[in-house]
Amino acid sequence: MRTTPQTAPRATGAGGGATVALILATVAFAVNFWAWALLSPLGPAYQELLRLSPGEVSILVAVPVIVGSLGRIVLGGLTDRYGGRAVFAVTSLLGVAPVVFLAFAENYPALLTGGFLLGMTGATFAIGVPYVNAWYPPERRGLALGIFGMGNIGTAISGFATPWLADAYGRRVPFFVVAAALVVVGVVFWVVGRNAPGTRPAAEPFTTRFLAAARLRVTRELAAMYALTFGGFVAFGVYLPLYLKAGYGLTAPDAAARAAGFVVLATLARPAGGWLADRLGGRPVLAVALAVVTACAVVVAFTPALPLATAAFLAMAAALGVGNGAVFALLGRMVPGPMVGSATGVVGAAGGLGGFLPPIVMGLIYQATGSYAIGLMLLATVAAAAFVYCRFALGAKEPKEGIA
């Protein structure tokens, strides 16, 4: 069955309603991502408290990531059907339950259960993309979606604020703070949020819409590109401290601070990627970003002097952020309106899973060889192949005005 594209009024992108929608979605996304990332900064504390093995800690941290990645498929489909306002508000409020549950969890099975339920907060990315996309005309969607994507700064906020709150006020306090923030954004979204004028709910069943979105060539291609760009961002955010400690003998705080700088720069670069894609086209912007990632991965594979490695990692962070913005600029322009949520679910799930696998591969390679060089050269090889595909084979010709 052919899906009838929804009409997103071009005038909405210039009005106050679009700005309010963008702000609401970005703040709600950041709060939900803080909730999603609550367990990772507290992993060492739980390891000591419950005498967990490194493998048990890894599983504990990975569970929300996996659930949040796959859950994007479901929430993207629900957004197409019920609209971003209702789904964002309800998901934020439902996220309060696992956060409060984890505040009182005292054993490993309880933590795993809470982490599994917490995964829904990481799936909210798939709500915001179609919600914001519908408010803006095609020529402004790249910048708008890039700004919304900055909400993943919630992971960096969690990295800084969660352990500080736990050390200063007690282990349960960060959970109570995040629970209160989720209540606020959920209620505000329900009261103040509005769906874009002219949007219509998709009438087809979820399975029909999901399969239709997954069959689109551009969906599959962008899923692969996002698995690399966002997956690389997540993987380095997690693994960079270990690389810096092993390769350069940095202290844990120094390595963590440099990794946080990587995350922040990549996050801030997302709007730039969307803005550039609006003006120059998504394909050339994404291709340049992939070329930069390739070159930087080759440089750091040889463990150069720290100043050069720092410059290479910062350039890679900016390129990954620009690539993220370009991917969703392409998605907003090339996927029919009623399918954006479902397509975002597929692409977002690929990105989340892309961030889960590389640290495992890097760890296994380092364990076998005592070096990160092979893992980083694999990244360079994959990025180079993605560059060639993006430059010469990615999708159909990109429309100048997008698909409304």
Automatic annotation (TrEMBL):
<protein>
    <submittedName>
        <fullName>MFS transporter</fullName>
    </submittedName>
</protein>
<dbReference type="InterPro" id="IPR044772">
    <property type="entry name" value="NO3_transporter"/>
</dbReference>
<feature type="transmembrane region" description="Helical">
    <location>
        <begin position="57"/>
        <end position="75"/>
    </location>
</feature>
<keyword id="KW-0534">Nitrate assimilation</keyword>
<feature type="transmembrane region" description="Helical">
    <location>
        <begin position="311"/>
        <end position="331"/>
    </location>
</feature>
<dbReference type="InterPro" id="IPR020846">
    <property type="entry name" value="MFS_dom"/>
</dbReference>
<keyword id="KW-0812">Transmembrane</keyword>
<keyword id="KW-0472">Membrane</keyword>
<feature type="transmembrane region" description="Helical">
    <location>
        <begin position="223"/>
        <end position="243"/>
    </location>
</feature>
<feature type="transmembrane region" description="Helical">
    <location>
        <begin position="143"/>
        <end position="161"/>
    </location>
</feature>
<feature type="transmembrane region" description="Helical">
    <location>
        <begin position="343"/>
        <end position="366"/>
    </location>
</feature>
<feature type="transmembrane region" description="Helical">
    <location>
        <begin position="12"/>
        <end position="37"/>
    </location>
</feature>
<feature type="transmembrane region" description="Helical">
    <location>
        <begin position="111"/>
        <end position="131"/>
    </location>
</feature>
<feature type="transmembrane region" description="Helical">
    <location>
        <begin position="285"/>
        <end position="305"/>
    </location>
</feature>
<feature type="domain" description="Major facilitator superfamily (MFS) profile">
    <location>
        <begin position="21"/>
        <end position="398"/>
    </location>
</feature>
<feature type="transmembrane region" description="Helical">
    <location>
        <begin position="255"/>
        <end position="273"/>
    </location>
</feature>
<dbReference type="InterPro" id="IPR011701">
    <property type="entry name" value="MFS"/>
</dbReference>
<feature type="transmembrane region" description="Helical">
    <location>
        <begin position="87"/>
        <end position="105"/>
    </location>
</feature>
<feature type="transmembrane region" description="Helical">
    <location>
        <begin position="372"/>
        <end position="394"/>
    </location>
</feature>
<dbReference type="InterPro" id="IPR036259">
    <property type="entry name" value="MFS_trans_sf"/>
</dbReference>
<dbReference type="Pfam" id="PF07690">
    <property type="entry name" value="MFS_1"/>
</dbReference>
<feature type="transmembrane region" description="Helical">
    <location>
        <begin position="173"/>
        <end position="192"/>
    </location>
</feature>
<comment type="similarity">
    <text>Belongs to the major facilitator superfamily. Nitrate/nitrite porter (TC 2.A.1.8) family.</text>
</comment>
<keyword id="KW-1133">Transmembrane helix</keyword>
